[in-house]
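User: Here's a structure from my thesis project, written as structure tokens. My advisor, Dr. K., wants to see whether a designed sequence matches the one we expressed. Can you design one independently, without my sequence as a hint?
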């Protein structure tokens, strides 16, 4: 059963159209492409996290022993977030005719939402310099993950088959 925008309540239809959730999908990336992109996104994000912690603690020696800068602390959160994004990408491809457009906007919204805990812990008294590094880590993870998925696991338009006698 193929979904159509008309299957949804009239009040929701303009929102779906605006976000290109039109159930006119492109051909999804292969499982191998998604797996490779996911691996690159996880490893790349962890490497960027480590680099940002190294730079942050060098620039701001006062946060050298900051608890959130322990690999075990940020690695599990990074992996969980990246895996969720990697699961979302093939879903977005299946529901939108403009999956990169939609996924990019979703990445922005999710990144902004994930900055909220950083603002909260800063407000609760965590060191501002440490929190700034955490915020940079969120932004870097979003950039690495988005680019790994859309470039390594790209989408393609369905090709219309022309009958052999017309080719």
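Assistant: Designed independently from the structure alone:
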């Amino acid at each position: 059963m193929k979904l159509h925008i008309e299957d949804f309540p009239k009040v929701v239809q303009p929102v779906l159209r605006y976000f290109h959730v039109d159930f006119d999908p492109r051909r999804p990336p292969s499982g191998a492409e998604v797996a490779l992109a996911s691996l690159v996104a996880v490893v790349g994000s962890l490497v960027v996290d480590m680099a940002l912690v190294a730079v942050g603690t060098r620039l701001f020696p006062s946060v050298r022993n900051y608890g959130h800068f322990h690999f075990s602390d940020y690695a599990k959160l990074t992996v969980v977030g990246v895996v969720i994004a990697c699961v979302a990408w093939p879903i977005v491809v299946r529901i939108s005719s403009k999956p990169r457009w939609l996924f990019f906007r979703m990445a922005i919204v999710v990144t902004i939402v994930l900055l909220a805990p950083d603002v909260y812990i800063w407000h609760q008294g965590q060191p501002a310099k440490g929190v700034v590094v955490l915020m940079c880590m969120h932004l870097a993870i979003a950039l690495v993950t988005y680019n790994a998925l859309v470039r390594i696991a790209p989408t393609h338009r369905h090709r219309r088959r022309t009958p052999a006698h017309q080719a």
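When you compare it with your expressed construct, this may help: The chain has one domain: 27-152.
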